[in-house]
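Anyone up for a design puzzle?
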């Protein structure tokens, strides 16, 4: 005789709630015209923030380099605001009228991925 033994399989479904608490990835630029916009050039050749806002006039940047050199250029004006060596933090400023600008690192190999939009109002 052939006996089939039935086994009751209890599948415990554990609902894992993965709340990715991405620290600090807020919309970076609530700075007033007095405050510097902080931009970090990360080792993966990306900016930590890709959208910034500022008021027209003198716009100040704080540029932080992780372990790779970067610069910050306002592409539309072809003007370099700041450049930093590895593990360095520098500041720089530029006069900007209202408009939308692209801040880019022009170091060869960085330009395609290190791009952000700065809205000046
Ligand atoms: Cu760079």
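Challenge accepted. My sequence:
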């Amino acid at each position: 005789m052939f006996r089939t033994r039935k086994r009751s399989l209890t599948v415990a479904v554990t609902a894992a709630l993965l709340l990715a608490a991405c620290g600090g990835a807020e919309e970076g630029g609530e700075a007033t015209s007095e405050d510097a916009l902080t931009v970090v050039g990360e080792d993966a050749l990306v900016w930590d923030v890709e959208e910034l806002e500022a008021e027209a006039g003198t716009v100040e940047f704080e540029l932080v380099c992780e372990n790779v050199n970067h610069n910050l250029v306002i592409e539309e004006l072809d003007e370099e605001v700041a450049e930093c060596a590895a593990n360095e933090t520098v500041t720089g400023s530029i006069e900007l009228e209202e408009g939308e600008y692209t801040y880019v690192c022009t170091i060869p190999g960085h330009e395609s991925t290190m791009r952000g939009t700065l809205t000046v109002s």
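A detail worth pointing out: Confidence is low (pLDDT under 50) at residues 7-33.
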